[in-house]
Amino acid sequence: MSTTGPARPNTRKLLIRTWGCQMNVYDSGRMADILAPLGYAPTESAEEADMVILNTCHIREKASEKVFSDLGRLRETKKARAAEGRETVIAVAGCVAQAEGAEITARAPWVDIVLGPQTYHRLPEMVARASRAAGAVIETDFPAEDKFDHLPEARGPQGPVAFLTIQEGCDKFCSFCVVPYTRGAEFSRPAAAILAEARQLAANGAREIALLGQNVNAWAGASPDGNSWRLARLLRELAEIPGVARLRYTTSHPRDMDDDLIAAHGEIPALMPYLHLPVQSGSDRVLAAMNRGHKADLYLRLADRLREVRPDIALTSDFIVGHPGETAKDFEDTMRLVEQVGFAGAYSFKYSARPGTPAAAQPGAVAEAEKDTRLQALQALLRQQQDDFNRACVGRVVDVLITGTGRHPGQVAGRSPWLQPVHAPLAHGGAAPVGAVVPMQLRATHPNSLSATMVLPEESAAA
Ligand code: 5AD
Ligand code: SF4
């Protein structure tokens, strides 16, 4: 067997556990890529792992607490392995690391490395230092240099769905949110670097590319023609790359949905009819307290305009109930907005105070029981809308991107243009290789997926 890079036996095992957003999923992949040349091969087992990275999320309190309970269990594993003479390097990465670096090493001194999202390219150096150091190695600065420049190119083979980070950080400072403190100021990668990575991903087998950023539609990157491009222009260029059949982007802010981006939804066939556009609340009073910088009406107008150019677009959103100062009437305004827009899906959360954020110091805390009641009412309505959306798809013939085999023999699995998981029997005479986009008739809804049948070429020609 031949290996590339430094000649190192592939004897060490790496376990990465990922919480939170797609950005973290992407970062975990890149950390695995960085460590591969050092001889780290992936494992799912903590007992086997010579290095464990917890890639964490700080956005809600529960997520950070889970990290500490995981660290508690890892301490035992590390002890047991040490008794057998095996070393275990434990690293905490991601936003909890960024926000609580010193607290982590105080509460969990068995952690060897703490690294913020801006310092992943220094991982190999930190691993080497951790093996030598007595205490933990902490790296959570926001260096001016571009961490992306130091990361190795994403390597193949690549599945049909790929994530590509184009933007990081956030300057919006919503009252409740830790992201501007953990991920730092908005930073847009240059267009040329993004296009090069997308070409590489497509060459390695990606058919669907999801562009990622905390504020992805605030992207404004240096372009090859010397100007600054906005997201719509970037999407147009990406759509030209051979092999790229589908494009998405997430997560967006209503304030950054510019005219050209809305128009792009009507003009770029590869841009999927699906947009995750968090609104958080339907009350202008709460939106102001949240420092969202827009009113409910802007959101309603955006939904209308998007549907004008792309009538089949599915909108999804995020909601917070019980932000400080939210009254029963404010909550009713949120329910009314949901009824007016009609969502295909949504995430909704009870407000949780995050240390250091302005909302944590705002008066008018909502009682926990009241938050529960509101959340249940909101989730019931959103669930109903999601069911309605899925049921309305039944009977339609839609393009499904094949992502793998289904749970049962003779089944294929894929995803619809609206990100719904779809499974279908492999029709006699029908071929459905992974990565193919195949027309299917949607037949029935299930709790987490849709079942379908493949439409054979002669049927689609006759249709
Ligand atoms: N409390 C509850 N939900 C929050 N979110 C972000 N911060 C908080 C918080 N402090 C939610 C928002 C955001 C999503 C990723 O998490 O809805 O859009
Ligand atoms: Fe957080 Fe608001 Fe920025 Fe989204 S836009 S990451 S909610 S501060």
Automatic annotation (TrEMBL):
GO cellular component: a single term: cytosol
Residues that hold [4Fe-4S] cluster 1 according to the record: C21, C57, C95
Main location per the UniProt record: cytoplasm
Protein's cellular compartments: Cytoplasm
Catalyzed reactions: N(6)-dimethylallyladenosine(37) in tRNA + (sulfur carrier)-SH + AH2 + S-adenosyl-L-methionine = 2-thio-N(6)-dimethylallyladenosine(37) in tRNA + (sulfur carrier)-H + 5'-deoxyadenosine + L-methionine + A + H(+); N(6)-dimethylallyladenosine(37) in tRNA + (sulfur carrier)-SH + AH2 + 2 S-adenosyl-L-methionine = 2-methylsulfanyl-N(6)-dimethylallyladenosine(37) in tRNA + (sulfur carrier)-H + 5'-deoxyadenosine + L-methionine + A + S-adenosyl-L-homocysteine + 2 H(+); 2-thio-N(6)-dimethylallyladenosine(37) in tRNA + S-adenosyl-L-methionine = 2-methylsulfanyl-N(6)-dimethylallyladenosine(37) in tRNA + S-adenosyl-L-homocysteine + H(+)
Membrane-spanning ranges: none
Keyword tags: 4Fe-4S, Cytoplasm, Iron, Iron-sulfur, Metal-binding, S-adenosyl-L-methionine, Transferase, tRNA processing
Entry's EC annotation: 2.8.4.3
Binding-site positions, [4Fe-4S] cluster 2: C170, C174, C177
SMART domains: Elp3
Signal peptide residue numbers: none
UniProt keyword annotation of Transit peptide present: no
The MTTase N-terminal domain, residue ranges: 12-132
Pfam families per UniProt: Radical_SAM (PF04055), UPF0004 (PF00919)
GO terms of molecular function: 4 iron, 4 sulfur cluster binding; metal ion binding; tRNA-2-methylthio-N(6)-dimethylallyladenosine(37) synthase activity
Cofactor binding: number and manner: Binds 2 [4Fe-4S] clusters. One cluster is coordinated with 3 cysteines and an exchangeable S-adenosyl-L-methionine.
PROSITE patterns given in the database record: MTTASE_N (PS51449), MTTASE_RADICAL (PS01278), RADICAL_SAM (PS51918), TRAM (PS50926)
Cofactor dependency: [4Fe-4S] cluster
Protein family (similarity comment): Belongs to the methylthiotransferase family. MiaB subfamily.
Subunit-structure text: Monomer.
Function, as annotated: Catalyzes the methylthiolation of N6-(dimethylallyl)adenosine (i(6)A), leading to the formation of 2-methylthio-N6-(dimethylallyl)adenosine (ms(2)i(6)A) at position 37 in tRNAs that read codons beginning with uridine.
Protein's recorded name: tRNA-2-methylthio-N(6)-dimethylallyladenosine synthase
Organism placement in taxonomy: Bacteria, Pseudomonadati, Pseudomonadota, Alphaproteobacteria, Acetobacterales
